[in-house]
Each structure stands twice: as structure tokens, then as C-alpha cells.
Amino acid sequence: MKLKNKEKRLCGGKLVVTDFKRLNPEEGLFLGEESPEQFCKELAAYTVDGKVYINTEISLFDVAAGIFEAFIPESRETLKQYQIEYGRKFPNIKTFEEWGKYAKTEADNEKIIQALAVLMVPLEIKRRSIESSYYGKIRVFPS
After folding, report:
1. For residues 129 and 41, what is the distance between their CA atoms, to the nearest angstrom?
2. Are strands 52-55 and 7-10 parallel, antiparallel or unpaired?
3. What whole-number distance in Å separates Cα of residue 67 and Cα of residue 63?
4. Gap between the Cα atoms of 121 and 88, Å rounded
5. Is residue 117 pLDDT above 80, yes or no?
6. If pLDDT is split at 50, 70 and 90, which confidence band does 54 have?
7. With contact defined as beta carbons under 8 Å apart, do 109 and 131 qualify?
8. Which residue, among 91, 93, 89, 114, has the nearest Cα to 102 in the 3D structure?
9. Alpha-carbon span 49 to 125, nearest angstrom
10. Cα-Cα-Cα-Cα dihedral sign, residues 58, 126, 76, 94
11. What is the pLDDT of residue 140?
12. What residues are paired with 10 via a beta bridge?
């Protein structure tokens, strides 16, 4: 994924791919209390209105962005089905550290992405919850 303007907005602006060094976490836009130095080491961050930012300086950022891009328009029911299906396939993947170890030993890229999806479905559900809390019960995509 190449970024011409150092930032790419996807899914109607709900997903933003950029270098976190360009952002100021102390402006109060982002959830979390990381220091600016720690913030720049994160793969992703939520804003108070439910947008998710992906850091281009972290390896595999494009995979994470692609998964979010695929999940954002999906219904909650579909996300739950993914979680059940991939959870059965990858019962030992419970943390990003476990996924990282798995990714180093697995040769099949599709399985690596599916294993990562196990961890990212709850993140998309959390993003929707943040968005709903901020805007109220407005539904842009099926839930």
C-alpha cells in the first residue's frame, strides 16, 4: 500500500493509515494514555469518535489495514461468524505475541492472515462500540 500524501483514508474515513510521528497524541483525539514516544510504536489507535488509525511505520501495517478494511462494512453477525470459524481453526492464538510466534513458523500467508483476524474481530467490535457511544445509535453499516 503506497501513500502519496502520507495518509490514506478508507471506509468513509473510519480507517486512516498514516505515520504516527505526524500525529499528536496529546491533543485528546486518541483514546489511551501512552507517551508520545510509546504512541509512535503502536500499530493502531482509536479516536474518541471511533476511527481507527494504523501506523505505517510498523511492519505488516498493510495486513492490519486490509483486515480492518474488510471488517468495517461487515455486519456484527458476520464478524461473530468469522470469530467462531477462525477461533476453531486457531484455538491457541489468544494474543498478538502468540500470533507473532505462529506467523514465524507458518508458511501459508492465508492462514497467517486468518489467525490475525481472530484477534482483530474484537478490535472492530470495540471500534463500533466507541463510535456508537460517541454518535449515539446511528448505524452507517449493518450491525
Report:
1. 24
2. unpaired
3. 6
4. 14
5. yes
6. very high
7. no
8. 93
9. 14
10. positive
11. 57
12. 15
Cell of 9: 483514508
In whole angstroms, give the CA distance from residue 65 to residue 102: 20
Whether 8 contacts 2, CB under 8 Å: no
Residue type, 141: F
**Which cell numbers hold the place of 46?**
482509536
User: Which residues are 50's β-sheet partners?
Assistant: none
Nearest-angstrom CA–CA distance, 117 and 76 = 14
DSSP for 63-98, please give it.
HHHHHHHHHTTS-HHHHHHHHHHHHHH-TT--SHHH
Per the prediction, the chain carries an average pLDDT of 88
What pairing do the DSSP bridges indicate for beta strands 44-46 and 52-55?
antiparallel
Continuous H helices in the chain: 36-39, 61-71, 76-89, 96-105, 109-135
